[in-house]
Amino acid sequence: MLTYTFEERGEKPYYQYLYEVLKEDIEEGRLKEGEHLPSKRAFAKQLGLSVMTIASAYEQLLVEGYIYAVEKKGYYVAAVQPYLTEPLQEDPAVKIFIEGDDASHEETKANWRMDFASNHVDRERFPMSTWSHLMRAVLSGQSKDVLLPSPPQGVYELRQAIADHLYHFRGMRILPEQIVIGAGTEYLYHLLIQLLGRDHVYGIENPGYQKLAKIYAHNGVDYRYVDLDAHGLSMESLRKQKVEIIHTSPTHHFPTGIAMPISRRQKLLAWAAEKEGRYIIEDDYDCEFRFGGLPIPTLQSIDGAGRVIYLNTFSKSLTPSIRISYMVLPRTLVGKFQENLGFYACTVSNFEQYTLAAFLQQGYFEKHINRMRNFYKNHRNQVIAKLKESRLWQMASIYEEDAGLHFLLHIDTQKEDSVIKDQLQQRGIRLRGMSDYTYDGSQVIPHTFIINYTAIDPQDLPEVLEEIYQVCIN
């Protein structure tokens, strides 16, 4: 009989503690692959908890791929391999810097009546008064530091604040010396190409972030496309393309919304560890906006071989205009970075770095994210409500709406996606399909469109949804 006590729960919610102990038992092999878990009702009665508590714990395990559901039969333990995480310790090979040492027309068109392709965040929600207060405090208290040259990897205070944030929010145990600050992720990609070398084969997910192809081509890098399947990055395609360095978004893939299950994550990590020179670039671009359950752990946090390079940005969580991004290097690459690329100046001003450090350290970022998560959740609900009230809902369904700032809209129509998009464009409505994110325009998932809802006013939706309906049926 499967049973647990909650004496060590502390202040954690019951569902979170139950999720954690079940996850640990699966990872450690105490719960075997294929083992049938108790039903939610029976487990609740046995543990003296509510059915909702059991359901929440099971749902989180399901989304992360630790268990799977069989209709009318229940939940079963998935295939999960044990792994070792890299221990956190000072590496003598890592030098610690002492502070003070040295688009196309369609893309830019501004008069769309409705733009479902825009992923701009709500600028009105930026905490301007708090940010202004911290800027003044930095000027008065750290005026000399602001005028000093920034270390190549960024000021120590910001890197420490990011390391603390990643530990508490993403479960990542890293050192500030592993972090590199840069003005936007595109700049960091250029650094990574120089760090890892141009003689490797780089992989891009298909469908996926197609701007990477332009960056790689501009740098003279050999790149290939790796297909996805129902669980994210296809291992078969990865091996077939003979890729050595792969860019992926395992927590919330764009545009499919897939969350890579733990079994696939472990296979990907095992692939990287098989051969020297293989690396995974983990893009965690909108991890803050998960509307149900706990945050899904990063690849970096379960990487025991030091093969994951973690990338994130504050563009989605704060505002694109700040343009502060960062990457977390494996400790084995830190010395190489400092030796080969340490001559580069940090591309973010000290003024902004110290301000963001204070914003993180004083808890303002966490409060802001909580507010924005609630705001976007309500905004998403309003958009979906308008959709369900429209005639388009008769022939539509939505997917992957529980995380990130977009969801997928599938329309049951015989009309070609390109025709739908062209006819809507003539009406001032911009809509992108899954084919817009494949390298050859192929319809891997036909009649499925990406709805970025952050820039949409729900009050304007009824008329626009009716026009989409008319275009799809005529």
Compact summary:
The chain is α/β, with parallel strands linked by helices and 474 residues long.
Strand content: 5-15%
Global shape: globular
State the distance separating the first and last CA atoms.
59 Å
Largest sheet, in brief, is: 8 strands, mixed
Overall CATH architecture of the largest domain: 3-Layer(aba) Sandwich
Low-confidence stretches: 84-88, 90-109
Just give the CATH class of the largest domain.
Alpha Beta
Instruction: Give the beta-strand count.
Output: 16
CATH topology name of the largest domain, in short, is: Aspartate Aminotransferase, domain 2
* Rg on CA atoms, Å: 23 Å
Average pLDDT taken over every residue: 88
Judged by helices, strands and strand pairing, the structural class is alpha/beta
Total number of distinct structural domains: 3
Approximately how much helix is present in the residues? 25-40%
Spatial sequence of strands, sheet with the most strands = 4-11-10-9-8-5-6-7
- Counting H and I runs of at least 4 residues, what is the number of helices? 16
| Corresponding CATH superfamily of the largest domain | Type I PLP-dependent aspartate aminotransferase-like (Major domain)
Commentary on this structure:
This protein is an alpha/beta fold and 474 residues long. The chain folds into 3 domains: 14-77, Arc Repressor Mutant, subunit A (Orthogonal Bundle); 128-362, 3-Layer(aba) Sandwich (Aspartate Aminotransferase, domain 2); 367-473, Aspartate Aminotransferase, domain 1. Helix content is 39%, strand content 14%. Strands 4-11-10-9-8-5-6-7 form an 8-stranded mixed sheet. Strands 12-13-16-15 form a 4-stranded antiparallel sheet, with helices on one face. α1 crosses α3 (51-64) and α5 (128-141) packs across α13. The protein starts with 13 loop residues before the first helix and ends with a helix. The model is unreliable at 84-88 and 90-109 (pLDDT under 50).
